[in-house]
Prior knowledge:
Blueprint: H1 4-9, E1 37-41, E2 44-47, H2 48-60, H3 67-88, H4 94-107, H5 112-122, H6 126-147, H7 157-167, E3 173-184, H8 193-204, H9 213-217, E4 223-232, H10 241-245, E5 255-256, E6 260-272, H11 275-292, H12 296-308, E7 311-313
Antiparallel strand pairs: 1-2, 1-7, 3-4, 3-6, 5-6
Helix pairs in contact: 2-3, 3-6, 4-6
Amino acid sequence: MASAKQGTSxxxxxxxxxxxxxxxxxxxxxxxAATSVVAVVNKTAITSGDVARRAAFLRLxxxxxxxxxxxxxxxxxxxxxxxxxxxxGMSVSTSDVDAAFExxxxxxxxTTAQLSxxxxxxxxxxxHFKAYIxxxxxxxxxxxxxxxAGSKNKLSNQxxxxxxxxxxxxxxxxxxxxxxxxxxVPASKKxxxxxxxxxxxxxRASFPGCDQAMVFAKNYLDVSVRDLGRVLEPELPPDxxxxxxxxxxxxxxxxxxxxxxxxxxxxxxxxxxxxxAAEVVFRAEDLGKESEGxxxxxxxxxxELRSKAQIVIx
Length: 314
């Protein structure tokens, strides 16, 4: 959890924070038409229907210019990204995508059903938007995993000293020590998730503290405990960050994930201002700046995939 991968993931909410109009009357879904293949990326077909949905999505974002051309370009790039994400096995889970969809709806003061209705009427569709979210969340993790070992994401001693001199003081951040409590829901028994969620929520009131976490887990069926150790505030994954900040009684609220129903126990937290914390804060600031523009590593990775791919544009 405190890895470079997850440090990057905290900024991913910005990737899907689009300026979505919630006035469906401004948009009309395109008329139904025969679907044809307009591009092939490594044997993966992109259809005219795909392009129409992405063009409608671009209009929802108030994008100008030739939306058909831009839509096709985006879909070719996404096909390359999706194939590489699948090859490496770094896709986010369906539950992560659904949770992001729910957060996006809430941020626009809608239910998920209302958001789906807006997307359908605009000619985008919830499935297309969710596919977009999945790539948008997965790709930066993959890029960071590939390039994190390089010097780019690791500040040298000289760079750290220079940044500290510029700031004139070390940044302060919150240090957490966390344990993860997982009420396991097997893939073959997803129907019991609601019951397990109620059980997990109820258990929070009797959680005895981190020192007794393992003993506590033995009182329940199929509950595991993971020691996540030290995690600095900029490294908190976006799905957990608001729950940690709102935590009361030493535990966060619950989340349904691909593993089951989970919550975090906050064993300890304090304000810190040391060299390690300073580097994490500075790196998070740099990643935040990248999210507002183009990431050179992402461009380099995508160009490499493109150079090896078989791409046919009809």
